[in-house]
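Supplementary notes (optional reading)

For those who missed the lab, this is the record we used. Protein: S9 family peptidase. Length: 691 residues.
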Amino acid sequence: MSFPLPSVLRIAALLACALAAPAFAAEAVPPAPPPLADFFNNSAFSDAELSPNGKYLAVRYSNDNKRDRLIVIDLATNAMKIVAQFADRDVRTFQWVNDERLVLDSTDKTIGQGDAVDGPGLFAVNRDGSNFRQLVHVNYSAIQDRSVAKNTLPPNHYLVTQQGAQNSDDVYVINPKRDGIDDNGDITHVNLVRLNTVTGRSETVKRPGLAQGWLLDHKGEPRLCVVVEKNIQTIWYRDPVTNEWRTLASFDAYVGGKEAFTPLAFGPDGTLYVRSDAGKDKMALHTFDLATRRVSAEPLVVLADFDFSGRLITSGDKLLGVRYLSDARSTVWFDSKMKALQATIDAALPATANLINPPARAGSPWVLVQSYSDKQPEYYALYNLETGKFTGVGGTHERIVPGRMAAQELVRVKARDGLPLPAWLTLPPGTAAGTAAGTAAGTAVGTAVGKRKALPMVVLVHGGPYLRGHEWSWSADSQFLASRGYAVLEPEFRGSTGFGTKHYKAGWKQWGLKMQDDIADATKWAIAEGIADPKRICIAGASYGGYATLMGLVNDPALYKCGINWVGVTDIKLLYSGHWSFHSDINSNFLKYGAPTLIGDPDKDAAQLNATSPLLQAARITQPLLMAYGAADRRVPLYHGKKFHDAVSANNPNVEWVVYQEEGHGWSLPKNRIDFWGRVEKFLGRHIGTP
């Protein structure tokens, strides 16, 4: 179905740029695939947020590929006002301070990381566009400008997105302090600063130690502080009566432990909610007893096949429910009215997962609904509780037609040692059909039906590697590849998070070994199922995924006919030693205390790291290879790519090489995304072809 847009709310029309609501019904697939730009251009509409009382809607939007600006709509009158825009910058993060005032920072979407010299700054403005004030400078040269208010903070202050009570003019910003010349070293500690958005006055919160993180309570008061010294993480609690700090727990910051937990949020009644495995395999949502300093024995939310991750949903002083991620994002509602509302909206929009966002304080009939699916990029609509009608707001990737997109499903295969391996399978349109979002934990979100033929396939390996690679949703990378006729397989190899402690820890010290075997085993499963043509498979990935691409070509040369590595690690020892030409942003504490356990000790495990180094095995790679790097990358600096390119090119004439001078660890500029994926399309066409 589609959402009707009242004329006053039709932001695109008001700004002379049509923003059409997407049709959720399937459409006939035309012969020509969608152009590259439809997948990789910046979206005109990118975010929306209700005011705390639910009477106003703030929207970030650009017009005709111009600058992103901030718009506020009065939902009672449909009056619209552009409240913040810059001639040379884009609005980035924004949030409501209270019902009358917003805070925002900025970026410049026309330049890459290598050309960026300014910080995001911070600004505040009333919802009617009045009382605009700069709170944080975007660069240090502005500090010398006498026309700028004296109490504007230096550029190294950044907005804290935890919103608190939203009933004062104050917000919090963090102020990281770094080691090294020009403050380019590790962060030693992070100060928390309370900032008044009207006067610009600020006050630094007393910290109990070398703070690395902070958590506000439901009223917006600093309540937890995370301190890390060497490898030990200590959770400190600020007593609301005495305002004194006391410790709650200490454990290894990198490998955890039996008593480890992750603070999530404080509820309206002051209850602390945490993520903990409580000695079991899966992370779950628990409460934490501040008196006994114990995690609750019984979880509040537990998922059968996934670790819990998510957030609390509150309105006023009531905990309404919990947003969580299983295969897709969903919500468990404790409030009966919200549970009934979810059922009503799901019945109206059966083809999508629908996330209901109520205002912080009930004061209007509006809730904001985010809808998405594997075929549908995120779309925002207002739902009126009194009339039962939707009002469309806008969607990301507005040129994407859901009926032309591919179905995606979560499959589970077995590794050679019996470990279950989740993997995301996306099949080109016309070869499979998927069901709507599954919201019950542990269910597959799509069941492919119809004819599966021996397709050319791209095995897309996620980065990290110690994170979750994907969820059931629309993805530009996999959908683009599927639109060109390729099956796409994205394995959640051991070491990936989100699938239990056993799955995560099974990946420790397994770079190039069992982690690599998992990717190969998932690929062989696709061949055995008749999905993939064994003669037309390419492996690809970024960062760790780039490393796995290179090691896949080394370990399984008969399985992969080509490889695509962008911003990939090429030698594990280089992560530790670095290079004189560029400074990496990998934290030295992690390299000293975490990486030896998770990746390998550069001294004790030297033989293993040499055997699993793509750089040292470069002569064994003879398959066609596409490599791309960012010259300004501080996570995997360019020397990783250069050294490997020199080594592999000595014996392999089929190596394509591109450097994006202004880019960092990934492509921020649409022109570079379009250029890169255009190269990928041509490279795949030459080496594994399309059906």
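If you only remember one thing from this example: The chain has a mean pLDDT of 90.
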